[in-house]
Amino acid sequence: MTETTRKASSIRQAVDFGALVAFMAAYAVNRFARGLDGQEALVQATWVLVGASAIALIVGYAVERRLAPLPLLTGGFALIFGVLTIVFHDPNLLKIKLSIQNGLLAVVLLGSLPMGRYPFKYLLGDAIKITDLGWRGLTLRYGLYFAAVCIVNEIVWRTQSDDTWVAFRGGLWIASAVFGVWQVFFIMKHMIKDEEPAPVSPDTGL
User: Fold this and answer.
1) What confidence tens digit (pLDDT) does each residue in 93-147 have?
2) What are phi and psi of 66, to 5 degrees?
3) Which residue stretches, if any, does this entry annotate as coiled coil (predicted)?
4) Confidence band (pLDDT; 50, 70, 90) for 206?
5) Which terminus of the chain is more exposed, N or C, with fewer CB under 10 A?
6) What backbone torsions phi and psi does residue 19 show, to the nearest 5 degrees?
């Protein structure tokens, strides 16, 4: 990974994390300061999410001069489901977005393994350079991660309160960061010579 790519990745992750923090802060203000119920607070906070998602995509393009596939995919989902949430005034659309997004990624990644193709390599772009065996292992790991997030999110949003779901969404970003760091050890075993690994979070923060 070049120094330029590393800096661009760090900037993008910082912006993505900032977008999630802004969303959670907006929810807290509307829920506890303004006294709105959970669903109304989520709808109001979604305005911030939509704006932050657009800013994240713009910054990502500015620092890399392109729209990286994974941030574009997840950012696009955030914009689409965010707008739908606002238009239909239904926060469940925002909650289910996490399930659809991660479920789709899980199906694509895990479904590609029997065919010997690794779309995760395309999704990450130039973030890392590893052997085909490494890509296979990484595709399996991230595919299982996305499947787990999809299942857990379905359980949480359907059985728990809005406050709990928002807290879960914040905790999920931390879990994804830890997961990304954990994968560095696997990546190092399959790294192409002269490359330096960096953690790749499976959560864009949106």
Assistant:
1) 999 999 999 999 999 999 999 988 888 777 776 667 888 899 999 999 999 999 9
2) -165, 165
3) none
4) low
5) N
6) -65, -40
Domain total in the chain = 2
How many CB atoms are located within 10 Å of the residue 68 CB?
Answer: 21
- How big is the CA angle at 128 (ends 177 and 124), to the nearest 5 degrees? 70
Integer Cα distance of 133 and 131 in angstroms:
5
How many Cα atoms sit within 13 Å of 58 on the Cβ side?
8
Q: What's the pLDDT tens digit per position in 23-67?
A: 999 999 999 999 999 999 999 999 998 998 888 788 777 877 777
| Residue range of the domain that includes 25 | 2-64
- The token pair at 2 is 């070049």
What is the tally of helices (H) and strands (E) in the chain?
Answer: 7, 0
Cβ proximity of 69 and 125 under 8 Å: yes
Long-range contacts of 63-67 (CB under 8 A, 24+ apart): 63/7, 63/8, 63/11, 63/12, 64/8, 64/12
